[in-house]
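Minutes, project check-in
Item: structure for the 167-residue chain
Input as provided by the requester:
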Amino acid sequence: MKNSNIKTVVAVGIGAALFFVLGRFVAIPSPVPNTNISLQYAVLGLLAAMYGPVAGALIGFIGHALIDLSWGGSPWWSWVIASAFVGVVVGLFSKKLNLQEGEFSKKQVALFALANIAAHLLAWVLVAPVLDSVQQYHRCGGGRPAGAGLHQNHRQEGLSGSGVIPA
């Protein structure tokens, strides 16, 4: 059991590093403007299937957060969480794959592909947009009326020390 935990920790470290390198420095351009094909999710899917949902979540979370931090800003947490979610969903399907037996039949390949498709659809169509909305809601003052509270304070006080005179 202890040996298994060490392998999982090592897999998380290597997986997060691979996720970061592939996501930050390796991109295949697509015909859709401002869009690339991301290879890091193949690594996430494989390692989540091999080591389970906890490892998948940590690989997606740490790797995506490192990518965002390397661009010089703060992580976009809704997308970081969505990447972790992909790792969890694929990792949960890993119990049905039973990869520890050393076989990867056509049926298992189909289940692995289906798990990845389902995980990405849920993550990018449901989880990330919902968390984006929540994140935007809290950034804009949590439902306060327009012109009141947070926004008003930024207009009156936020620009006063910057040399910009508020209107």
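Outcome recorded: Residues 144-167 have pLDDT under 50 and may be disordered.
No further action items on this chain.
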